Amino acid sequence: MAPTNQQIAELFEDLGTLLEMKGDTIFKIRAYQRAARTIEQLSSPLTHALENGEDLTKIPGIGKAISEKIAEYINTGQVSAYQKLLEELPPGVLDLKNIPGIGPKTAMAISQELGISTVEGVAEAAADGRLATLPRMGKRAAENILRHIQAVQNIGSRTPIGEALPVAEQVIAALREQCPDIGPLFPAGSLRRWEETIGDIDLIGTAPDPESVGNALVALPMVKDVLVHGPKKTSVVVESGIQIDLRIGEPGSFGALLQYFTGSQQHNIRLRDFANRQGLSLNEYGITNTETGQVEEFADEESFYARLGLPWMPPELRTGLYEIDASLEDRLPSLVQESDLKGDLHLHSEWSDGNDPIEMMVEAAAAQGYEYMALTDHSAGLGVANGLSNERLESQIKLLRSMQEKYEITILCGSECDIRASGEMDYPDEILAQLDVVVASVHSAMGQDQATMTARMIKAMEHPSVTIIGHLTTRLLGQREPVEFDVEAVLQAARDTGTALEINASPERLDLKDTHAYRARELGVPLVINTDSHHHTHLNKRRFGVAVARRAWCRPEDILNTLPREAFLEFIRTPKPQRLNVFDKRRTKMVAT
């Protein structure tokens, strides 16, 4: 099987780590690390680009040598330079790099001095005191490493954004309550960029008395360990195991501070190179004229970017891949917002595995200001979800039709219908034809090989009653890996058949992921942001789906459920695949206005 972009990115990340262990030049190391970050963000498979004869060196951060290694990996399944490095270094040393607090040089020291090559071995050495004897280590550093290992074993190395964001919001609210005179206070880093998982929570702010804010943080009941406590920086670990780093800066330079710690690293590297060509250098304090040494401070990000001759860039776009070139060419999109959504097309009630009555789900959708909604309880095939039999579904359809006169919001009859292992639908055609919206999803036989799963999904898309494919890859963040299928073939089939693809806003799913949604948008596939709500409060989680769409450069016109009621009804009432004419016409009209 051809390697995925993620596998190729991991290879170059490991190459950079191995070179750092060996003591190679920093420029070569950083080149591999930048290539890894770039490849992770690509929307199209590199395997397809190579097959099509595309010049990989046109991708930012991919030079001739790296391009050749990508081709070697795709064609042979390995890279000779990587294999050679593995042979030169101690066995197992690469496994140590994933331990928080252990860099490549420390990993080498642990391997060479202590003969350890496993995470378990490091934990034992930290517990019995051997780790602390290494140069530049010490007892406190060893204790921190042990604590990090234990935390990773308990919750994983990164935290899903659905868990991290509420913690950040809770801390910010508590700090504002304790320190009423605090100025702006925002999450930065991967959380502000709305990445699907985060490492630590970075909080950036200003305050008349920075020390009082740090004191308030360490005194919070949720804090179980204090790592650093200084006048301008405080780091703690909360009960859930997440580390929170608080930095308080000066109001006059807050824009530079926020920009710097928002990142991403790749974005900041490209921005720094862009500034260097203008005779400027960047850091968290401001912009320095390299000829005169004069430092300019910026109170907000807009003025910071403007000094470089660039527009402000939404944090979700700051990947270091396309955004700077797009900004220079005035091509930055006007991204979709929560307020653009006109409906939710994936909601469950207590008729299947939801928690609330139908009426409560309808009222919750109306409370969002929606013009339409679809109730999509499970089909009978998903027995654990109390799926609806043919008779129960027909009864529900009658009930929903009778309820319409009570509500201004348009109630659409739907189903989340299982895609059987064969690609057949879990309801007969005559039942499906009665529905307004059919969300077809894979819930079983997830171990099928790539070719079988691809054919299964495409067959479902070809069904005339299927409106949307739900949570396409079936992944659960940190719990279940995505199923294997040919992403490019499936996305193209969605376009060809006029089938919409769901961006499932449920924080444990976020499926489609951003790179898949980016490619779907490029192909002109209608995208739908749904919450997959099983409780009336879950509709508020639409913000996570909107964030995925924004990271995919989606504008309102790229999202099907930003259509007003009549335009959306026209879409679903048009036979497939002529629906694309409705969608494309609407997109063109929205762009023009």
In short:
With 593 residues, the chain is α/β, with parallel strands linked by helices.
Draw up the topology in text.
Layout: H1 5-22, H2 26-41, H3 46-51, H4 64-76, H5 80-88, H6 104-114, H7 119-128, H8 138-155, E1 159-160, H9 161-178, E2 185-187, H10 189-192, E3 197-198, E4 201-206, H11 210-218, E5 223-229, E6 233-238, E7 243-249, H12 254-262, H13 265-276, E8 280-283, E9 286-289, E10 295-296, H14 301-307, H15 323-328, E11 343-347, H16 358-367, E12 372-375, H17 390-403, E13 410-418, H18 429-432, E14 437-441, H19 450-461, E15 468-469, H20 487-497, E16 500-504, H21 514-523, E17 527-530, H22 542-551, H23 565-573, H24 579-592
Parallel strand pairs: 4-7, 11-12, 12-13, 13-14, 14-15, 15-16, 16-17
Antiparallel strand pairs: 1-3, 2-4, 5-6, 6-7, 8-9, 9-10
Report on the structure:
Helix 12 crosses helix 14, helix 19 (450-461) runs parallel beside helix 20 (487-497) and helix 23 (565-573) packs antiparallel against helix 24 (579-592). The radius of gyration is 26 Å and the shape is globular. The strands form four sheets. A seven-stranded parallel beta sheet has the order 11-12-13-14-15-16-17. A five-stranded mixed beta sheet has the order 2-4-7-6-5, with helices on both faces. The protein is 44% helix and 13% strand. The model has no long low-confidence stretch (mean pLDDT 91). It has 593 residues and is of the alpha/beta class. The chain has four domains: 5-155, DNA polymerase, domain 1 (Orthogonal Bundle); 159-249, Beta Polymerase, domain 2, CATH 3.30.460; 253-328, DNA polymerase, thumb domain (Beta Polymerase, domain 3), CATH 3.30.210; 338-592, TIM Barrel, CATH 3.20.20.140. Strand 8 (280-283) and strand 9 form a beta hairpin.
